[in-house]
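Re: that chain you flagged

S.,

Sorry for the slow reply, it's been a week of failed gels. I finally had a moment to sit down with the sequence you sent. For the record, here it is as I used it:
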Amino acid sequence: QVQLVESGGGLVQPGGSLRLSCAASGRIFSINTMDWYRQAPGKERELVARITREGSAQYVDSAKGRFTISRDNAKNTLYLQMNSLKPEDTAVYYCSANIKSRAFTYYANYWGQGTQVTVSS
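Prediction finished late last night. Pasting the structure tokens below so you have them in one place:
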């Protein structure tokens, strides 16, 4: 029993900022990689940022220099700081995590329900 819940989405003007959070809860043994994906209407789901357990991060080119992914391992929480937002960033943002639960032997991928980010003037 593991669940991920995103929060922090909303409506923001171009150039504005948002910070998304993703809280993992349940029978968690350990969390490996944590990701932020996004999916805009009519488009494929896109990996935006990925962070390892040790804190190494990767970003999609369009997010480099504007987004920062981070995590608090003590709180089992993932963050995405989004600055200088553009209309092209409008999408549903999903948290994903590779988690070993206390109910299973191996790691499995879990997904949150998504949070809407709309960038519009």
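What I noticed first: The chain has a mean pLDDT of 97.

Talk soon,
D.
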